[in-house]
Every structure is written in structure tokens, then in C-alpha cells.
Specification:
Layout lengths: L1 E6 L8 H9 L7 E6 L2 H9 L4 E5 L2 H11 L10 H8 L3 H10 L12 E3 L9 E5 L4 E5 L4 H8 L7
Parallel strand pairs: 3-6, 5-6
Antiparallel strand pairs: 1-2, 1-3, 2-4
Amino acid sequence: MMYAVIRVRGHGKIIRKAVETMDQMHLNRVNHMVLLPETETTRRMLQVVKDYVTWGEVSEELLSRALETASKHTGEKRVSVAELGKKYGQEPSELLRALMDGKTTLSDFDIKTVLRLHPPRKGWEAIKKSYATGGSLGYRGRDINALIEKMLPSQGGV
């Protein structure tokens, strides 16, 4: 499985250890999202930065949509999963499955590891409270997909 990690809070009054951990995760700005494998190391890193980010298990179809709308090739061009599959000789579904299983990473396909998202429609919930208490921070499981959906451009293209 793959975690989608989104930075919620900015630079003010952050403990040094959390700053260093977010730098290692490449989460330098609010509304940036990274994909991390579900490992023990990742879980420990997330516990350090839990007061500044939210995370959960991303679904395959939403990952595909996020890659097509928010990811960029290293040359600042947008890429689609179908184009990547054609370029690297894989079916798009195989490529997504390999990403979800952690067998490959975005940087293997020359895609920037940080996806820049819009702020969520209707805003964040309280950014100083955990998700369990009605806020935006911390682990939210599969509900991360609803948040990412709110942060991607609408499919109708308003």
C-alpha cells in the first residue's frame, strides 16, 4: 500500500525535528502531497510530523487522477499515466499497481515526487486539531481520498 501525505500547516513555530523530517519527505509547502510506501520507517516519520500533516491510504483510481492533474515531469510538463505506460512499455494499470505496491517510485519515471494541490474546496477543517477530534491533522485512513478529491480540479472543468 501507499500513503498519501499532505502538508496542512505552514512554517510557524515548528519543532526542529519535525522540520528536518518534513525536509526529508520533501514536504516544504502547505498543500503539497507526497506518496510514501507503507513501512515502519514511514510510520515513525509520520509520528514525528503528525501535528503538521495528514495522511492515509490512497486508492488506485484517485492516484491515477492525481498524477494526471497534479504531477509534472522534470521538464515541468504534465504527464498522463497512459503516456507513461506507453513510454516505459507497461500497461497503465500495471504501472499504477507497481507504484501502489512500492516496487517503483515516481522518480523512476522522471516525475517530480511532490504533487502540488489546490487548497481543499470549502477549506480545511481546524488545522490545529487531529482528524479524530474533528480537525485536519494526523491519520485519516481511506478518508484521505475524499480530501484529495476536494483538492483536485473538478472533472467537469468548471
